[in-house]
């Protein structure tokens, strides 16, 4: 029973007891008072009568007449005159007159219990007899019942008023309790949120204690993140430009080539400025300022065009070269021109270096060196021919004809309408090779061929159909889970557009509400970069989905984890480390200590750490040493395996 | 635990209350209490009168009814002087208890009558045979009358009563007392009757003089005990 119900029960019990108590006390007191009064009246009347009768002629008829007249006119229930030997001389009485308005039980309990008034009648010197007088009590019961009835009604009215005031007061008292319970439950889900301190002393103490804990965990999170960032910066960052260094970029590129889809349009942009003008020999701090200016300009372009690609990596590849890796890109040439323009704008002074750029698309059979070599060759050619615009690989250059756009619209709309989606499920395994959940990748049936997300994502995003398409996939998953008796969970990666589309989110919530069991078996994840860019939306996303029993995770984690604000308040279930960190895990010592620190931090907040992009099974020992809880397998599980 | 203690306490209280309401039958004078009451209020020398009363009543215990009437009558005539209420109690009409009567050694007609009534009841005379009688008394041979109270003993309900008068030392039948005209008589029936719950004992202020004096007598050790 909830506390509000219990308090109400207590109030009702108190009121009932108070009403019953006061009515009983009223009844008993009144009865006693009436008895006292009437007994006095009885005695006085008897004495009066006896005195008068003593003076009268002792003729039975006269006596009877006298007594009868008294009885008939006055309020008596009995007047009896007995002679000295106890024989009745005159007896007038009426049976108890029960008033129909008062209930029988009330009369039984509260009828005055009276002794008759007794007095002696004498005849000269000798005794004549004794007179007994009893007053009528019927009318008293009736009036007592009326008064008791009024009392009950009055008390009920007061109780009702008290109830209204009590309800208001209770709500006022208990409102902060809801917040405290919410906070406590959030803690239980490893969400270390702070809440407003209520006024009630006990609740205040609880909230203060919990807020202290929340503050403490926030401090731990921030401190550890700072430490990890420092560690990472040492090996993966270029101090001058504030960007990632060559090693890091190679790792990311390696991860991309090894583990990501090969159907999508993923491209590398290489931006070079010439050194002949002596830029590298200018004073160090000036050089740093200008390099940082350039870096932030390139980042600015990425920020402006974030709807044109899924993921971006930027690094300083050489002293005079910047590289950008974009995945699932739409209109790479537009971005390339934006880079070129912004860079030439920054280097516009007479003695400033010239800017050259090349853009290459990653091919399915590419290796890191082949990609970089291709880009380098194109860049060299551009430089030697002094090309004043980016040199873009022909595969990226076809300027999307209207027909193609129409065809894509048609294909994707029909996929959404007819739910022509499926999922590719990759198991996430723990150290004992048991399935934690399946990583579900969307696949869309395009012209009779099942295509992975890389193939269509940039178009879906361009046509604003991506959120809808993802929702269709989630719907498919829910249906699949409902029809599938196995208890496995499915993780689905949501795009930035999905996260920001309130209408689609509302539909998702509706579906999850309608399928509470399926909801408990779904894990929603977004990219770390998305969460960092839209912290409020992500927070909202987490809290809503957690309530429905879903798990929430982050994917491609590593680069900007420390920039996630108040991550301890989100209640994340897991994070998946970017495949880039795993690419050379057996050789990269520096990465080990970073991962170790990262895992222990995550575990402090109840967050599991899974590794993405692991294709070897001989790292088990290393992984458990680092604290990694599971790995995303690289082998797709076909449906009949899932059914086991 | 506290609740049980409380319940037990309540039960005990109820038991006491019930036992306090037990029936009262024969009247008894507790001379210890009476003596203490007199000696505290009026001095130790007055307490000797109480002892004398106790001795007298003890001696009369097994005597005939006439001897009892005469003995009681003469005891109070001997030890108490007739005086009017305003002189003794500073009140116009005050009904004194036996202790007050013996303490002051003074009293008027009703004080005598009450003390004798109580003494006779103590000796085992049935209360329905005794009545306090308001009489109109003619003083001497004059035609002047005054209100007076005597105690009457009725051998039979309809018989001529023997009258114990504070002004006359003899115990005479009513028919011989031509100087007295009976007006009204009463006794403690309806007040001290066995089996009766005393309903007025809770509010002294509302008591009649007669009930008041009965209540006060109880304090002084004169009450009906079973």
Automatic annotation (TrEMBL), chain A:
Annotated GO molecular function terms are: cyclic-guanylate-specific phosphodiesterase activity
Entry's SUPFAM superfamilies? EAL domain-like
Keyword Ion transport on this protein?
no
List where the protein spans the membrane.
7-28, 147-170
**Keywords for the protein's UniProt record, in alphabetical order:** Membrane, Transmembrane, Transmembrane helix
Q: Which residues form the EAL domain?
A: 405-644
Put simply, this protein is called: EAL domain-containing protein
Q: What is the lineage of its organism?
A: Bacteria, Pseudomonadati, Pseudomonadota, Gammaproteobacteria, Alteromonadales
From TrEMBL, chain B:
Q: Which UniProt keywords apply?
A: Signal
Q: Which SUPFAM superfamilies match?
A: Cysteine proteinases
What is an example of a Pfam family matching this protein?
Answer: Peptidase_C93
- Name the Gene3D superfamilies on file: 3.10.620.30
Question: Which segment of the chain is annotated as a signal peptide?
Answer: 1-20
Matches recorded under InterPro entries: Papain-like_cys_pep_sf, Transglutaminase-like_Cys_pept
* Annotated PANTHER family: BLR5470 PROTEIN (PTHR39327:SF1), PTHR39327
User: In its UniProt entry, what is this protein called?
Assistant: Transglutaminase
Native organism is: Alteromonas hispanica
